[in-house]
Amino acid sequence: VSFAHYAKRLMNEDQVTTIFGCYTSSSRKAVLPIVERLNGLLWYPTVYEGFEYSSNVIYTGAAPNQNSVVLCRYLMDTYGKRFFFVGSDYIYPRTSNRIMHELLRGNGGEVVGEIYLSLRARREHFTTVIRRILDASPDVIFSTVVGDSTIYLYQAYAEAGINPKCMPIASLTTSEAEILAMGCDVGNGHITAAPYFQSIEGTQNNAFVNAFRSRYGANEVTNMCMESAYFQVYVFARALAQVGSMETDVLREMVLGSSFDAPQGTVAIDANSGHTDLWTRIGRANRAGRSRATADPATSGSRRGCRPGRRAARALLRIPRIARDAPEPDAAFGQRAQRELGDQEGAGGVGTEEVVLLGHVPPHRRRHGGPVRLLVALGKAFEGDGGHVLVGPLRPDVEAEPGGHAEADDA
Ligand code: ACM
């Protein structure tokens, strides 16, 4: 309620038209109807659950096709098929887990336990969680615990004496900031999939980290949300300099399809979805609290000393590849997709959602196609109005993209 209230006040009383912010998906969901009604522009920096499109939002964090798919594949290859889900009780963890569940199920994995706790859960609540995890004996703990209680989960885990080499906690949200807060020894060995880690090599990131440290102190750390919030302001400022207007429709038009050399690498704002093409990496936290992006997620990481006999799952997850010369979308797309998806439902267990899970749009087709609402099939890719391509959790009949990056047209 307060997020909606403040957004309304910013826009109505303070005459603000562009807002940078919101961390949780629940805060974004609260602000969304306000920015839509008052035609503002919200820049949302956080990794999120997908299944949303708004012509009043620019999304610069990763969506599940960009991070869950890569993470699931890595975990199944490296640790095994039995996952335990623990999450905070709100939309991001619930939806993120639903997608992870689909990915697992589609590839012979299973969820051996699932627990949700309040965002305000305290340390003692996690003792019970760890007990249930030990009882279930999973290969991997997939955590969508968000906020302060993240620290308690990892601390309770460390206290129980579990070895991250054998049964790590994997997450899409545990960044350098959380690891610093929980203690670097506690975070050591756990896994996060994200487009940005402080340890990424490169001129842009060096400049970013150095500038950040000289401003906030040598012991402070950068993280994925910070980087995303950082580059979106540059993207905004450049568009503003070009159009000289804060009017949402004018500004957004300039932003869509633009790219930027961000600390993580070159990112691009997709012209049709307002989401960002970005670079997911798998990171493993070290003793210094830094996640090192693994060069080859599928082969890194030693499990020496872990119990034997659990054969890692083979690479099973596939990413649809979109042909460079894919035909222009036709107007009947909606009905056709609906028909095809309708036909598949039940038969193949394929679900549909009227939303966006970001796929890759080739540069030559990056143009603003107007607001689009697209059907996403789990496991299917479609061309839609405005030329958008979508991918969902994946089927084995399309070729895999090496390296795990969810771009699909460059091979
Ligand atoms: C989140 O709530 N999008 C982490």
Q: How would you describe this structure to a colleague?
A:
The protein has a seven-stranded mixed beta sheet, sandwiched between helices. A three-stranded parallel beta sheet has the order 1-2-3, with helices on both faces. A three-stranded antiparallel beta sheet has the order 9-10-11, with helices on one face. The chain starts with a helix and ends in a 34-residue tail after the last strand. It has helices at residues 2-12, 25-37, 64-78, 91-105, 123-136, 149-159, 176-182, 184-187, 203-216, 224-243, 248-255, 333-344; strands spanning 18-20, 41-44, 57-59, 82-88, 110-117, 140-144, 169-171, 191-194, 259-262, 265-269, 276-277, 281-285, 291-293, 352-354, 375-377. The radius of gyration is 21 Å and the shape is globular. The chain contains twelve helices and 15 strands. The chain binds acetamide. Acetamide binds next to loops. Acetamide (ACM) is lined by residues 24-25, 46-48, 92, 146, 173.
Which descriptors apply to this entry?
411 residues; three-stranded parallel β-sheet; seven-stranded mixed β-sheet; 12 helices; binds acetamide; disordered C terminus; 15 strands
Summarize the model shown.
Helix 6 packs across helix 7 and helix 10 (224-243) packs across helix 11.
The unreliable regions are 295-411
- If you average the pLDDT, what whole number results? 78
Measured by DSSP, the beta-strand proportion falls in: 15-25%
Widest beta sheet: strand line-up: 5-4-6-7-8-12-13
Secondary-structure element order, N to C: HEHEEHEHEHEHEHHEHHHEEEEEHEE
Largest sheet properties: 7 strands, mixed
Radius of gyration: 21 Å
Silhouette: globular
Q: How many distinct helices?
A: 12
Number of strands: 15
Question: Which structural class do the helices and strands define?
Answer: alpha/beta
Helix % is 25-40%
What hetero molecules are in the model?
acetamide
Cα separation of the termini? 46 Å
